[in-house]
Amino acid sequence: MCTGEPGLGGWPQPRCTSRTGGTSTAYRSQPVVEDVAAPARYVHCTFTEVPPGSVSVAGEPVEGPRMVGLIHDGRSPEVRARLLHGIADAWCAVTGDAKSDGAIFLHEVPRANVLEDGEILPEAADDPVAAHA
Fold it and tell me: Which residue windows does the record flag with biased composition (Polar residues) (predicted)?
């Protein structure tokens, strides 16, 4: 289950890391794109399970999920903040995890640095599909 908040341009390439047998396993079959404003063909989701103790913060093991999302560049700080909180809230609503147990990192990628379906993505101003961004 990796989602974005409607109307925010979605979360086109999330990577979700959680402990083996954790909550992500049970929710993978849910539609990944149900809450994402981006066209479904732009949404790629990867789940990685790691053994307990494989993820640490300040040298201490943590159990909560870690998510890294690649998004197209150009979103305002307010939109990025709403996207981060929307993703966390959606995850917690489905899994029951506490928001404070996880971490989410967004990385902006220039559209010119993305090749999908054999095509380099056009800049948002030149892409009619990017109206959601």
Answer: 15-27
